[in-house]
Amino acid sequence: MERGLEDVKSILKKYGQEHLLNNFDNLDEKHKNELLEQINNIDFELIHNLYNSTKQKKEKNTDEITPIDYLDKYKLNDKYKYYESIGKKAIKEGKLAAVTMAGGQGTRLGHDGPKGTYDIGLDSHKSLFELLCDNLKEEGKKYGVTIPWFIMTSRENNEETVSFFEKHKYFGYQKDKNIFFFQQGELPMMDTEGKILIGEDGLIKLAADGHGGIYESLVKTHMTKKMRELGVEWVFIGGVDNCLVKMVDPVLMGIAIDKGVTVACKSVVKANPHENVGVFCKRNGKPNVIEYSEITDEMAEATDENGELLYGESHILCNLFSIDAIERMGAEPLPYHVAFKKAKYIDKDGNLVEPDSPNAYKFEAFLFDSFGEVDDMAILRVKREEEFAPVKNNDSAGVDCPKTARELYKKFYKL
Ligand code: UTP
């Protein structure tokens, strides 16, 4: 329910956020309304608790971590064709949709614009969005269907993303027929005193709530409803920054259908036991991903009787879900993780502050925190050189950057 100005003031007082209205009288009518609407949409109790969590000492983790089973795509033998035929049938029947998460800020890459518009330097100068779309179109052709494509943006990059697609005529897709845009959720950023920040526009400084916001956003923006109307049953969710992502994989789909699981994920084996990646595991008996910082050296190096790493299956944001699973996961918010970031803001005297070191808390949910919701899921190990060429950093980092992604892409497509 919309609150009036007096009610808003009393809520702000209760949570020590009165400063949010400091500049209210100087705003024009449009911004006044926007600010009130923003305040009305904030779950202050949640924000208050999140701030408190930043002050709590991290308790010693007592979770029981155990290895999780996986299948290797290239060791399936006869089963390969079996799974593939099940998946192919479902794809031909129009049961698959693709979702690309493109709401991130791409701070490490430092590109001026949505990451999906980035040109990785191929001779064709195609953007990441176009490379992804090329693959979708090529796969769709094989099965005589157009795979519906759903793109998650954020408030910050939505307009620029949609106009980029418009400029490129949606790469042959049709808006609102087989390509759909939806925006992810946001949370306010806070300073170290627990005060919500005001941005340069005089409004609350909001930031995208992490890729874990995907489930809730798909449901809230009625995209899962749209998918059902289109006859979709399975949804591949991937990132925008992996130029070799294979969103249409009949083997993965066939495995999910045959095994009766609602989530099936792809992994690539760690480049070395100490690579900084999250790996699949079981946490207290449920599927999960464990961050590299959480794992001991002993666990990282442990191998099975075949010499394979026990915790070697990297999570590469290539996951297939049934629509039911998405709806279930979207019903309850995921836990938020805190990041400490640099953020410009307007101080209490109305001056713009541009910090040169991190000054603000940002709260993000991680997509894989939902995996514990399911009792079982399938994991399929695929080949890194076929499916994983991420663009995370700029070239000076030397890894997961445009140069490495371009080389992998050219090698795979023999360009
Ligand atoms: P990353 O975690 O690599 O973040 O996102 P990022 O925003 O691209 O880059 P940095 O960390 O700021 O440098 C992995 C995928 O999840 C999407 C990204 O767009 C990317 O496809 N993502 C991330 C979202 O869609 N929303 C978010 O809030 C965060």
Low-confidence stretches: none
Average per-residue pLDDT, rounded, comes to 95
Number of extended strands: 18
What's the CATH topology label of the domain at 72-266 and 317-387 and 404-412? Answer: Spore Coat Polysaccharide Biosynthesis Protein SpsA, Chain A
Distance between termini? 57 Å
| Bound compounds | uridine 5'-triphosphate
Total number of helical segments? Answer: 13
Q: Which structural class fits the helix and strand makeup?
A: alpha/beta
Would you kindly provide a written description of the structure presented here, covering whatever features stand out?
It is a single chain. This protein is 31% helix and 19% strand. By secondary structure, the chain is of the alpha/beta class. The protein has a domain at 72-266 and 317-387 and 404-412: Alpha-Beta Complex (Spore Coat Polysaccharide Biosynthesis Protein SpsA, Chain A), CATH 3.90.550. The strands form five sheets. An eight-stranded mixed sheet has the order 2-18-10-13-9-3-4-5. A three-stranded antiparallel sheet has the order 1-11-12, with no helix packed on it. A three-stranded antiparallel sheet has the order 7-17-14, covered by helices on one side. Strand 4, helix 6 (158-167) and strand 5 (179-183) form a beta-alpha-beta unit. The protein starts with a helix and ends with a helix. The protein binds uridine 5'-triphosphate. The site of uridine 5'-triphosphate has 19 residues, from loops.
Short note summarizing the structure:
With 415 residues, the protein is of the alpha/beta class. The protein has helices at residues 5-14, 29-41, 44-55, 78-92, 128-143, 158-167, 214-220, 223-229, 250-259, 297-301, 323-331, 384-387, 402-413, and strands at residues 65-66, 71-72, 96-101, 149-153, 179-183, 186-188, 190-191, 206-208, 234-239, 263-269, 279-283, 286-290, 313-322, 337-341, 345-346, 352-353, 360-364, 378-381. It contains 13 helices and 18 strands.
